[in-house]
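This section describes the prediction task in plain terms. A model, or a person checking by hand, is given the sequence of a single protein chain and must write out its three-dimensional structure as a string of tokens. No templates, partner chains or ligands are provided. The sample shown here is typical of the held-out split.
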Amino acid sequence: MAFDKKYQNFGVVKVENNTVRLYESQQNYLTLNTSGGTPVSANWSGENVHVTMMDGKVRKYSMQQTYIVI
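The expected answer:
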């Protein structure tokens, strides 16, 4: 399962107050579960979101609460 296409089509990922938000419109967004670390950057990579953490690890999110460390 992957993120809904509406998030990918809008294409905005924002790191704000140590959370990662995937936007579907200017006001509506989905927050990724990044507990256990402080994200410093995030971007779309196809159907996934890559989040770089402060410790240098990169998480590949395929769903809101599902990721692997790459």
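For orientation: The CA atoms of residues 13 and 48 lie 11 Å apart.
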